[in-house]
Amino acid sequence: MAKEKKLVEAITSMNEDFAQWYTDVVKKAELIDYSSVKGCMIIKPDGYAIWENIQAELDRRFKETGVENVYMPMFIPESLLNKEKDHVEGFAPEVAWVTHGGSNPLQERLCVRPTSETLFCDFYRNLIQSYRDLPKLYNQWCSVVRWEKETRPFLRSREFLWQEGHTAHATAEEAEERTVQMLHVYADFCEEVLAIPVVRGKKTEKEKFAGAEATYTIEALMHDGKALQSGTSHNFGDGFAKAFGIQYTDRDNQLKYVHQTSWGMTTRLIGAVIMVHGDDSGLVLPPEIAPTQVMVIPVQQHKEGVLEKAAEIRERLFAFGVRTKLDDTEKSPGWKFSEQEMRGIPIRIEIGPKDMEAGQCVLVRRDTREKTIVALEELESRAKELLKNIQNDLFARAKAHRDAHIYDAHSYEEFTECVTEKQGFIRGMWCGDQACEDKIKEEFAATARCMPFDDKEEIASVCVCCGRPAHKLVYWGKAY
Amino acid sequence: MAKEKKLVEAITSMNEDFAQWYTDVVKKAELIDYSSVKGCMIIKPDGYAIWENIQAELDRRFKETGVENVYMPMFIPESLLNKEKDHVEGFAPEVAWVTHGGSNPLQERLCVRPTSETLFCDFYRNLIQSYRDLPKLYNQWCSVVRWEKETRPFLRSREFLWQEGHTAHATAEEAEERTVQMLHVYADFCEEVLAIPVVRGKKTEKEKFAGAEATYTIEALMHDGKALQSGTSHNFGDGFAKAFGIQYTDRDNQLKYVHQTSWGMTTRLIGAVIMVHGDDSGLVLPPEIAPTQVMVIPVQQHKEGVLEKAAEIRERLFAFGVRTKLDDTEKSPGWKFSEQEMRGIPIRIEIGPKDMEAGQCVLVRRDTREKTIVALEELESRAKELLKNIQNDLFARAKAHRDAHIYDAHSYEEFTECVTEKQGFIRGMWCGDQACEDKIKEEFAATARCMPFDDKEEIASVCVCCGRPAHKLVYWGKAY
């Protein structure tokens, strides 16, 4: 019993110290390990399997919209990175530089890609000649490097995994349409698959991507009331095309610049899942992305027939398309329960001699701990139904929590009160002046998370910062 | 007609200049493009989709044997790379060094991983404490960098995609068993999926991996008679474990070193597919890995109902699980045929007004160009059957070609004749002395490809190089 307590006690309570709770969960749930390279993490089997599930589903959704995958080199020559002025200013301070190949110094330094706009532009310049070559809808799955000073597993690490889509279009309208389309792909994915509600909107000029004309974002609220930017989609207009000379001959025989977009999602999503759904017993995974959806745990497994019956349950569910495992190790059932809870496995099935006698087993939900007794003949359908309910309930619970942490501020005084005393999104009007954003960031460490698409109401007529007339509604918040 | 001829004429004949033919095919079949980073390639949609198909099937086979995926950092601190002597000597001359993060010099240089043995060892040292923690069967899919001087698309590039499996075991026997098991997974995959026959065997001491006790290999024969090492599996014994201090407490309470393996396959496999199956019209893809298995090409598509019928055929096959596309562009049918052949799409379906009248369509095999008239009601079953036949025939043809290019040499004279006048594998006995390997390499640029598992016959009693007594049968060859 001492050992079992230890596993549970090892996690800090989330209300006591949310940051420490997070660090405890990523380690104890065996999602990551630290490596000997500062700021780079090892993604362990359970962490990587979550990423594989995210990848498979996102990739399917991309391909449905006509996107094709490619692979670009991981290195960018310095001269290529320097071609677009805003872009290089945004990224150069945090890139890793390769200076030697073997024992020879390179003629030109190469940076390890922090993002691949410049490589795609260089590629598109040669590839695109005619309107017949458009649009190009390419994506790649890879890792990128940003030499951050402070790092946290999944949320901010020097190397992380992501996908980056890069498209080229004949017209500005098409590019804008694709930028918004991909944002909705991201938002739907977050809500339907990760069970995380998001606010869809546009970034301010200050917060947009280096080199973009417009950046769209989805913003999620973590359990501690801080925001997490969970996916962004950028419209570059013809800025990169002009810097790189990407032109095509249109139907009217005129030479025109293409219009481009890019959009990305990262392993940071795993951090979002942890911080939205997790609790003091550890991880809570939405069934859609859980590497293991059901863990079968035999009770009194030394008794005749128990292990066989547990194995049979595992086999039946597995054959039914449920990702199921059996824990038949020598550990005690209590220890196994704690492990299953820590790892966030959505359902555990308890089966012992008494259940066998009654022709039943016990399904326990990870999220609510609710127990359901299920007749063995109904096992498959009931397990699948329960997984569906858990998925839906996780979303509903996260949405209720998020909605309960959105505050309206109509003036500077109300804004100050919200931002200092509450944790969550603050809805407040903004005049459009960057000086106000700067002031709010400096005073409160809060930023304009986004100007929402679907919420254009003017909750007040003046800017929450300067009191001048304002027509833009902004979601403000402190962010990861 | 001029345009159509151009596409075909653009390829060098393989008998005229095999190297140029290869370069033409990778470009014209749109598998790769060159990038502005010397020696690094861009993998285009068709090339990447082949890799995705290879990945999916290999990954499935790995997981069936209990392997789990993880992700390790792409950087290795110099001190970590230096821990195993043979290993660092093998790789240090060809690694890319990162020396700066942003504008600051790093305290310690980091190399971009050329392979990840050292990272896995560092990880395992902390992870493995007890016999209960064993075995560890981890794999990762990633890109690696080796600063090669001469590069060729897929075959040898400075960055390439691969998987690297790294396992740790309690005993030497288990490690040896896993090493050989994975080699057979590779070999079966090559034969069943890529339709490439391979020789399975062991590398000589000279040819083994830097730091390994034993390296096993599968060797394939390209159309030009040169060998391609297509996958390797290494048994490290406890060498790395001793260098890194990876110990576990066994059941008997004794502290013991683990025994390790690693095994890898790369995008080089795509090069093998090209060079084994391709012909003077371009790529020929085995149906199992073809991104598009069937291309539907309407004939006289301006005639009423033709495009609709072609679309219907595409829909029906797609719904039946056949990867099918429709080419409804404005190009001429002849031009489309050439493109489909260049891209190696296993079957094209021709459908025109006369076929519609007769309730049929024409299936044309890419490999033999054989035409089959198929009644539309039998479309799905006949197409699937034909894909299966193509897959089998490609293997049979490659095997016949390979077997016809294996030569037995019983003496130095016969060896000299074979290696200078024939193209293929040369079977010849070897005394076991590395001096003989060195001599053969220097004189003929040929190497010991492997000592085969399944062919232990002694075809002669003396070494093909020195004439001394010899008991080891070796497949010799010139290799990519």
Description:
2 copies of one chain form a homodimer. Residues 1-5 of chain A have low confidence and may be disordered. In chain A, the strands form 5 sheets. Chain A has an 11-stranded mixed β-sheet, sandwiched between helices. A 5-stranded mixed β-sheet of chain A has the order 16-15-17-18-19, with helices on both faces. Chain A has a 3-stranded antiparallel β-sheet with strand order 4-6-5. By secondary structure, chain A is α+β, with helices and mostly antiparallel strands. Chain A has helices at residues 2-9, 18-28, 45-64, 78-81, 85-91, 117-127, 172-192, 239-244, 268-277, 306-319, 333-342, 353-357, 379-403, 412-421, 434-444, and strands at 32-34, 41-43, 68-69, 75-77, 96-101, 104-112, 136-145, 159-169, 199-202, 214-221, 227-237, 247-249, 255-257, 259-266, 294-298, 324-326, 347-351, 360-365, 371-375, 406-408, 425-430, 447-452, 472-477. In chain A, helix 1 packs parallel to helix 11 (333-342) and helix 3 crosses helix 7. Helices cover 36% and strands 27% of the residues of chain A. At the A-B interface, strand 2, helix 3, strand 3, strand 4 and strand 5 of A face strand 2, helix 3, strand 3, strand 4 and strand 5 of B. Strand 5 (96-101) of chain A pairs antiparallel with strand 5 (96-101) of chain B, so a sheet runs across the interface.
Tell the overall outline of chain A.
Answer: globular
Outline the biggest β-sheet of chain A.
11 strands, mixed
Query: Unreliable runs of chain A, pLDDT <50, ≥5 residues?
Result: 1-5
- The first-to-last residue Cα distance of chain A is 38 Å
